[in-house]
Amino acid sequence: MDDGGNAGRPARSQRADARRNKEALLDAAAAVFVASGVEAPVRDIAAKAGVGVGTIYRHFPTRADLIVAVYRHQVESCAEAGPALLASSPTPHAALARWIDLFVDFLVTKHGLAAVLQSDSAGFETLHAYFLDRLVPVCTRLLDAAAAAGEIRSDVAALELMRGVGNLCIGADKDPDYDARRLAGLLITGLRRTE
């Protein structure tokens, strides 16, 4: 039977629509987690996303599934931002600084994530490995570009920088007077070559 080549179009359209809906759920969950922590009621996430609670559970059967999906979604967003910033920023150093701002935002908005995942150390290790696998190469590329442009010193490893920034973020979610982004900015400024 000839359908004129249209057999796959509705399915593709539905898949794209389902993917957009899932991303909207993840964005809504991330926003609620930032405001209220990972223990926020699922009904709050559903309200933010404009869907029913059942829709959340259809996509994410458990709270842990939702938390892991949000975490992965945010890691991907941070990873994808690196090349985009490098292409659109006036200098590689500016791209690095803007990416570090995003990285700080990512780190300080993880209210309660570690506590939730501690009960599943294998799950936490898997997420941490995913985090490193996706973000260290992005940071490396940004550092290499800034060093090649002569903007920063060339002896800083990505993981070293990311750990330093991570340490600056500890406690930032609990103290409104502490600006981790500002301190990370000072660190990035300090990478500049002085010659």
UniProtKB/TrEMBL annotation:
GO terms for MF: DNA-binding transcription factor activity; transcription cis-regulatory region binding
PROSITE patterns the record matches: HTH_TETR_2
Pfam family, one: TetR_C_43
DNA-binding region: 41-60
HTH tetR-type domain boundaries: 19-78
UniProt keyword list: DNA-binding, Transcription, Transcription regulation
Gene3D superfamilies referenced in this protein's UniProt entry, alphabetically: Tetracycline Repressor, domain 2
Protein name per its UniProtKB record: TetR/AcrR family transcriptional regulator
Phylogenetic placement of the source organism: Bacteria, Bacillati, Actinomycetota, Actinomycetes, Streptosporangiales
